[in-house]
Design brief:
Belongs to the ABC transporter superfamily. Pfam families: ABC_tran. This is ABC transporter ATP-binding protein NatA. The protein is α/β, with parallel strands linked by helices and 234 residues long. 33% of the residues lie in helices and 26% in strands. It has helices spanning 42-49, 71-76, 93-103, 108-121, 137-148, 167-184, 222-230; strands at residues 4-13, 16-26, 31-35, 59-62, 65-66, 78-81, 155-159, 187-192, 203-208, 211-217. Strand 7, helix 6 (167-184) and strand 8 form a beta-alpha-beta unit. It binds adenosine-5'-triphosphate. Adenosine-5'-triphosphate (ATP) binds next to strand 2 and helix 1.
Length: 234
């Protein structure tokens, strides 16, 4: 099983319960939208999935590896795009990719080939030598996505990856990541509070106040369903 399984996950900040009995699975090659308003617990869940935080409550399995028992094997199968941009703006586009490749133990020709392939795919090959600072917001985000995939993970986690982008760029990035699931078989967990980023064919998990309220095909009319379940607009 190369997907993601989350069972009965719980986490508290002191007395504040942030996640409670969170259970859902994302099958291999599926795009799963994790929809929740601010404070639903999405960032806490991502912190647990990437082992920034640990918990004794529940279990996470990544591509068949138990994250608590085999963290190195599990984390090697994950690529992450965090909410806050993390490119080094003073390094070139290519160096940003090579640096990340090195963190994953790739170097020399293999790393250079993967960086080149990633830039080709984004249509950015001619910008390899430019500083990341020269890129617009959309290109920076695409670079971060390419960088998260440089070690060829099975699962891509994105925490509100379109924050701060204009509507057209947001739509293009959302399309791009949907195509990574549909065409490349990548398993995607996409956290968002925006219903227009969810497609009818997606798996939709609605998280609210630390609990999963619904899990299934998104279908149409996500906004109405979200309002009915949570009493909030997204
Ligand atoms: N360090 C902390 N100490 C106490 N409570 C916290 C802390 N971090 C988060 N929380 C609370 O835990 C709950 C879940 O927060 P979390 O940041 O995971 O939600 P989120 O869905 O990612 O929201 P956002 O989009 O605003 O980041 C919220 O009620 C939040 O106020």
């Amino acid at each position: 099983m190369s997907g993601l399984t989350i069972s009965n996950l719980g986490y508290s900040y002191g007395t504040k319960r942030a996640l409670d009995g969170v259970t859902f699975s994302v099958p291999a090659g599926r795009f799963c939208a994790l929809l929740g308003p601010n404070g639903a617990g999405k960032s806490t869940l991502f912190a647990l999935l990437t082992r920034l935080f640990t918990t004794r409550e529940g279990k996470i399995t990544v591509a068949g590896h138990d994250l608590a028992r085999a963290p190195r094997a599990a984390l090697a199968r994950i690529g992450v795009v965090f909410q806050q941009p993390t490119l080094d703006l003073d390094l070139t586009v290519q160096r940003n990719l090579l640096y990340f490749a090195a963190l994953h133990g790739l170097s020399g020709r293999e790393a250079a080939e993967r960086a080149e392939a990633a830039l080709d795919r984004l249509g950015m090959a001619e910008r390899a030598g430019e500083k990341a600072r020269a890129l617009n917001g959309g290109h920076r985000r695409r670079m971060e996505i390419a960088r998260a995939l440089i070690h060829r993970p099975d699962i891509l986690l994105l925490d509100e990856p379109t924050v701060g982008l204009d509507a057209a760029t947001r739509a293009a990035i959302t399309d791009h990541v949907h195509s990574l699931a549909a065409e490349d078989g990548l398993t995607v967990l996409w956290a968002t509070h925006l219903t227009d980023e969810v497609r009818p064919d997606d798996q939709l998990v609605i998280l609210h106040k630390g609990r999963v309220l619904s899990d299934g095909p998104a279908g149409t009319d996500v906004t109405r369903r979200f309002l009915e379940l949570t009493g909030e607009t997204a």
